[in-house]
From TrEMBL:
PROSITE patterns: IG_LIKE. The keyword Iron does not apply. Residues 1-20 form the signal peptide. Residues 127-213 form the Ig-like domain. This is Ig-like domain-containing protein. The keyword Signal applies. Keywords: Signal. It comes from Triplophysa rosa.
C-alpha cells in the first residue's frame, strides 16, 4: 500500500509540474544560491527544501506563508539562509560535505518540484617542484636531471600534469580523498624548453613553472 501511494505521489508531481535537474560545480568556501524561479511568494505558498537521496523526506529549510513559518534545519543553520521574498536557498561557506542532491517542492495552486545536483570541490594546493634522484631511470646520463611535482591533501577529480610548452607530457589523477600525488620528469641539464606542472580539477587549476637552472645547476657534478 505504501509503495502504491508513493507511486501515486510521484505521478502527481509529474502531472502538476516537474522542472529538470540543474547542475552546479563550485569551490569550497563559495556562496551558492539555488533559485526557486518564484518572483514573489503569496499567501498559502509553501516552499520546502530537502537534501540527499537516502532521506529525501528530511526538510532542511521551509517557508510556509499561510502560518507565517520560516525554519532551517538546526544542523545546517550556520550555512543555510532562505530568501524571504522568493524562497531561494542560499548556502554560505559551502563545504565538500554539502555535495549532493537538493530537492525543492513548491506548493501553491499546484505542486512543482525541482532538483539541483551540487558538487563542491576542495581548494587546490599549489604544486611543489623539487629535484630528486631516486625516481630517475637507471639509464639516465649525468647530463639529466630528475624533478618531481607534488601536491598533498588533494580531493577527488584532481589531476597533476607535466607540460612542455603546450604539449602534454604525462599526467596522473586521483579519485580518493586526502592523498599525495607526485609525478616525476627527466630533463636535460642544458634544456632551454619551457616546462610547467599543472594541478587541476574540473573548475580550476594551479600552475608551477620549472626553473631548470635553479634546480639542476649541479647536475653535471
Amino acid at each position: 500500500m505504501v509503495r502504491v501511494l508513493a507511486l501515486v505521489h510521484l505521478c502527481l508531481w509529474h502531472f502538476d509540474g516537474v522542472f529538470g535537474d540543474e547542475v552546479k560545480s563550485v569551490m569550497e568556501g563559495d556562496t551558492v544560491t539555488l533559485y526557486t524561479d518564484v518572483t514573489e511568494l503569496h499567501t498559502h505558498d509553501v516552499i520546502q527544501w530537502m537534501f540527499g537521496v537516502q532521506r529525501p523526506d528530511e526538510i532542511i529549510a521551509e517557508i510556509n506563508t499561510e502560518i507565517n513559518i520560516k525554519s532551517i534545519n538546526e544542523r545546517l543553520k550556520n550555512h543555510l539562509q532562505l530568501n524571504p521574498q522568493t524562497g531561494s536557498l542560499i548556502i554560505t561557506n559551502i563545504t565538500t560535505q554539502h555535495t549532493g542532491l537538493y530537492q525543492l517542492e513548491i506548493i501553491r495552486n499546484t505542486v512543482q518540484n525541482k532538483h539541483f545536483n551540487v558538487t563542491v570541490y576542495a581548494r587546490l594546493p599549489v604544486p611543489d617542484i623539487s629535484r630528486v634522484s631516486s625516481q630517475c631511470s637507471s639509464s639516465s646520463s649525468s647530463s639529466c636531471c630528475c624533478v618531481l611535482c607534488s601536491v598533498v591533501n588533494v580531493s577527488h577529480d584532481v589531476s597533476v600534469s607535466w607540460y612542455k610548452g603546450k604539449s602534454l607530457l604525462s599526467s596522473i589523477s586521483v579519485s580518493d580523498l586526502n592523498i599525495r600525488l607526485s609525478l616525476p620528469l627527466e630533463v636535460e641539464y642544458q634544456d632551454t624548453n619551457t616546462y610547467r606542472c599543472v594541478v587541476n580539477n574540473p573548475i580550476t587549476n594551479h600552475t608551477q613553472h620549472l626553473h631548470i637552472t635553479h634546480l639542476c645547476h649541479t647536475c653535471a657534478d
